[in-house]
Write a structure and sequence with these properties.
Blueprint: H1 3-16, H2 22-64
């Protein structure tokens, strides 16, 4: 159904609404609400599927795309030097006088 056909049909429904009895009005409202709810659910699932597909494409693109920056060179750490013996000034030997 073309959207213009739907608009015409809805205009006709509004025009004839006052001629309907209460039971017909309730049934019409129920059908319209059910239809709107079904369309909303359908659109929601389509959007979710579209988002999921987009996310998969982005992830795949990220996996296969070339890294624009070259890898960084490893940092060299100097090896620790041998601990030096402390230099004493004066006579601090255990046999020294006190």
């Amino acid at each position: 159904m073309h959207p213009n056909d739907l608009k015409v049909t809805m205009r006709q429904l509004r025009a004839s609404y006052n001629r309907m009895n209460r039971r017909q009005r309730l049934e019409t409202a129920r059908v319209l609400l059910d239809t709107a709810a079904e369309f909303a659910m359908q659109l929601r699932s389509e959007v979710r599927e579209g988002d999921a597909a987009q996310n998969r494409q982005k992830a795949k693109r990220r996996e296969t795309e070339v890294d624009p920056k070259p890898p960084t060179k490893p940092v060299r750490v100097a090896e620790p030097s041998k601990p030096k013996k402390p230099k004493y000034s004066g006579n601090h030997a255990p046999s020294a006088r006190r």
